[in-house]
């Protein structure tokens, strides 16, 4: 299990101008972010987000359902923001061959 050789991420340069490619924290984040389980978790969250978008209807009047769905959407957004920052720390933001942008 794991990432096929064709899609392995190579750390190059400095991420955000301060984290070198040999930085232990950056290497640990790369191994964590591109592990089998974290990739599957992100795919699951994307699927969960799709279902929550399908269930969100303006005609629903149940306040418990709306509160639950709102809390779920907030949690999903927080997970995506955390993933965004981890990927920026690993890949860099906009400079370099494998940068996020």
User: Approximately what portion of the residues adopt beta-strand conformation?
Assistant: under 5%
Radius of gyration: 17 Å
The total of beta strands comes to 0
**Please, how many domains?**
1
Largest sheet: none
CA distance, first residue to last residue: 28 Å
Label the overall shape: elongated
Helix proportion: 55-70%
Name the poorly predicted regions: none
Average pLDDT = 82
Total number of helical segments? 3
- The SSE string, one letter per element, is HHH
From the structure above, extract its key features:
101 residues; mainly alpha
Could you provide a short overview of the structure?
The chain is elongated and about 55 Å long. Helix 1 (24-33) crosses helix 3. The protein contains 3 helices and no strands.
Question: Explain this structure to me?
Answer:
This protein is 58% helix and 0% strand. The protein is built from three helices and no strands. Helix 1 (24-33) crosses helix 3 and helix 2 (36-55) runs antiparallel to helix 3 (63-91). The longest helix is centred in the last third of the chain and has 29 residues, at 63-91. The radius of gyration is 17 Å and the shape is elongated. The model has no long low-confidence stretch (mean pLDDT 82).
Task: Furnish the topology, listing elements before pairings.
Elements lengths: L23 H10 L2 H20 L7 H29 L10
Helix pairs in contact: 1-3, 2-3
């Amino acid at each position: 299990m794991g990432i096929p050789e064709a899609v392995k991420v190579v750390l190059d340069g400095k991420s955000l101008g301060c984290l070198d490619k040999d930085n232990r924290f950056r290497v640990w984040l790369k191994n964590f972010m591109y592990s089998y389980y974290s990739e599957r978790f992100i795919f699951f969250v994307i699927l969960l987000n799709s279902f929550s978008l399908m269930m969100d209807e303006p005609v629903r009047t149940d306040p418990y359902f709306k509160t639950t769905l709102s809390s779920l959407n907030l949690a999903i957004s927080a997970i995506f923001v955390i993933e965004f920052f981890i990927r920026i720390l690993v890949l860099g933001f906009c400079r370099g061959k494998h940068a996020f942008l």
